[in-house]
Amino acid sequence: MRGVALTASLLAALLWTACGDDDTAPLDAAPPDAQIADAAPPDAQIADAGVDAGAVSPLLGKVVINEVLIDGLAEGDPNGDGDVSAVEDQFVELVNVDTAPVVLDGCTLVELDLPDQPRHTFGPLTLPAGHAVVIFGGGDAPPATATAVFFTANAADPGIPWGLHLSVPDDRLTLLDANGLEVAHFCYGGTGECALAAATDESLTRFPDLTGSFVPHTTASTDGSAFSPGTRVDGSAF
């Protein structure tokens, strides 16, 4: 009986030494795994902020940037208003490559250096399949054709003569949908996909239209034309 009592005493002492004499770790502290489990994962935190981490614009792949004139002083008068201007004659041409109309209401064109000042915000506009919309930096936009409409950039601060604000030697122009999700982009003067030199005296255009890589317009055109806003590179309608 004394042996049993001694063994019990030793066991109690050992348990007290191992567990009861350490006041540095509170008994109700959550174990590491539980603490990690309680922390919201990054995607959940983003979702809580009202942004879907995996969100993709429903317009992605439906609208492409087909032609861009960086050099507004290209020989000629791209917007046809009789006034050649480095700012006003810059343009970007967008084309609906989908088989159905696309709604561009609330979409914006955003330039790299002015992310909080969209260079253009679209009002109500439904672009039919296969049709183009061209945004000039300023001036007077030409009248619409059967397959293209034209606008001048309504920048957030129209008092500053920046237009589309396409810069040399490098820049990036992004089309965002009404929820701020990327639809398409055009970049140059960088590396990788942006390893494209800014063209002077002519636009950069996809060749073939809509699907090809960007090349200087005179390289793609058969008549040596420097730009073709609202039409294919050969001047024919979309």
- Give unreliable regions as ranges: 1-51
Oligomer: single chain
- The radius of gyration is 30 Å
CATH topology of the largest domain: Immunoglobulin-like
Q: Within the largest sheet, what's the order of strands?
A: 8-7-2-1-11-12
Structural class: alpha+beta
At CATH level 2, the architecture of the largest domain is Sandwich
Largest sheet: 6 strands, mixed
Backbone shape: globular
- How many domains comprise the coordinates? 2
What is the count of DSSP helices, taking H or I runs of 4+ residues?
4
Please, what is the average pLDDT? 84
Intertermini distance? 103 Å
> By CATH's scheme, which homologous superfamily of the largest domain applies?
Lamin Tail domain
Question: Can you walk me through this structure?
Answer:
The chain has 238 residues and is α+β, with helices and mostly antiparallel strands. 16% of the residues lie in helices and 23% in strands. The protein has 2 domains: 2-48, no CATH class; 63-220, Immunoglobulin-like, CATH 2.60.40.1260. It is built from 4 helices and 12 strands; from the N terminus they run αααββββββββββββα. The strands form 3 sheets. Strands 8-7-2-1-11-12 form a 6-stranded mixed β-sheet. Strands 5-4-9-10 form a 4-stranded antiparallel β-sheet, with no helix packed on it. A two-stranded antiparallel sheet has the order 3-6. A hairpin with an 8-residue loop joins β4 and β5. It is globular, with a radius of gyration of 30 Å. The termini are far apart. 34% of the residues are buried.
What's this entry about, in short?
By secondary structure, the protein is of the alpha+beta class.
